[in-house]
Amino acid sequence: MSEQHYDDPANVTNPEHGEHHIVTPAQYALVFVTLLACTALTVFAAGIDLGVFNPIIALAIACFKGVIVILFFMHVKYQSNLIKMTVGAGFFTFLVLITMTLSDYISRAWGLW
Amino acid sequence: MDSAIATTQEHEAGEHEHVFVPQHRHHFETEEQQREAGSFGMWLFLLTEIMFFGGMFFAYLLYRNWYYDAFVAASNQLNVKLGAANTAILITSGFFMALGVWAAEVRKKRLLVIYLILTTIFGFAFLGIKYFEYKEKYELHHIPGASFDVSQFENPAAYGLKEQPLAPDMAQKTQIFFFLYFAMTGMHALHMIIGLGLLFWLLARAQRGEFTAGYVAPIENFGLYWHFVDIVWIFLFPLLYLINRHPLK
What we know:
heterodimer, B: about 70% helix
């Protein structure tokens, strides 16, 4: 996009359109190795008794793996702000739904949790 | 396709320069805009999928809190080695899919076909291991329903298991774990079966060179779907197999 026109109803010269970026095989390989290492790590961590931290660590590793898959394998890091916002808003809405439903369940059986 | 090319002549004053490529549909101003609209639509679809799987993840979260002992006992009957192997297999399949997108972008037809075949092979390997896991559950009568057998959970010592014995009512609740296990991994497997079907279709089209002449959208959007299925499993594996190994006393 060389120059920006402010009168642009067709949204053609929008500088927000992402550059067409090609992720290289070397980057993919790095992500792949990281994912395999994280899988080994999470299996190893599950073998140690960490009390309440066992599920927390397992989910933290899963979230990290999910994020790098989304950013690199799914190219979100190189997409336009529109797509980044869409993905972010989707996960945010999902968390809101979980939080509100869970707070309902917790407050109905008060003291049993 | 033809109509997209036919719009070449229509140049209005002050309009940007069109660069015409056969895949560019006439209702998009630029190919860039078309590509982004496609990704946007694919992501909206994937977000509905997140909500779909999210409901089951939420049910798991809630029931695990309600029937904690039953979930611990039932979860520990799953084979961590097979689950971990399947995680690695699925990640490998996703890696080849990512390489396939790259091959299409740089217009290497042979490489694209090879990577799509590897993606398919690892996808089938995942389903193969899943089959043996399901088969074991079938033989142990651990599929929820009329023939579900709670004896392993009521008297684990008799089966050489180290789990705590459960009272009969709690032992019945292991059915809820297995119901969610089959619902979640089953829906995940169904997504993989659909994906593998699409892979054969894409392979045939890739073989004809349809995606290595500048038009990569189907490969790219299928890649998004395949990686999404990956992500679901990345969360299913720790939740179903790992987090109940060391139960709270």
